TrEMBL record:
The protein's name in its UniProt record: TF-B3 domain-containing protein
CDD domains: B3_DNA
Domain named TF-B3: residues: 2-107
InterPro entries linked: B3_DNA-bd, DNA-bd_pseudobarrel_sf
Subcellular location per the Swiss-Prot or TrEMBL entry: Nucleus
Organism per entry: Corchorus capsularis
Broad class of where this protein is predominantly found: nucleus
The keyword DNA-binding is annotated on this UniProt entry: yes
């Protein structure tokens, strides 16, 4: 199940990833007083990453991915306007929940359509 899709901003690639509030019910927070959770997220290349999701204090308790996110950004060489898609998958056999992330980059526009390629595949096309 897709949780959200977002085009990355400058803040997303330099500080933290701001994520939509509607995903809060899909995050296993430790408890109500300590609004953080460490998510194990698999990328499309099979790598496993840990992102800390926290809810900021204040009137707008918008969640962000903080710890672990910038390491992912640097490893994947992400850029502003790359598209991030986060999925939550449930194994029907065991009931286990897993998270999956895909990052796509727009590489060209062809016949009025944007062509996006997973950043894991850019090297296959000599792009990077």
């Amino acid at each position: 199940m897709e949780l959200f899709t977002k085009l990355l901003t400058q803040t997303d690639i330099e500080r933290r990833l701001s994520v939509p509030t509607h995903i809060l019910n899909s995050i296993p927070f430790v408890d109500e007083d300590d609004r953080h959770a460490d998510l194990q997220v698999k990328d499309s290349g099979g790598g496993l990453w840990t992102f800390r999701c926290i809810c900021r204090d204040g009137a707008y308790a918008k969640p962000v991915f903080s710890k672990g996110w910038l390491e992912f950004v640097h490893a994947k060489k992400l850029k502003v306007d790359d598209k991030v898609v986060l999925f939550k998958d449930k194994d029907d056999n065991q009931g286990a929940v897993s998270y999956r992330i895909e990052v796509r980059r727009e590489v060209l526009r062809l016949m009025g359509q944007d062509i996006w390629i997973d950043v894991e595949q850019l090297h296959l096309y000599g792009i990077g």
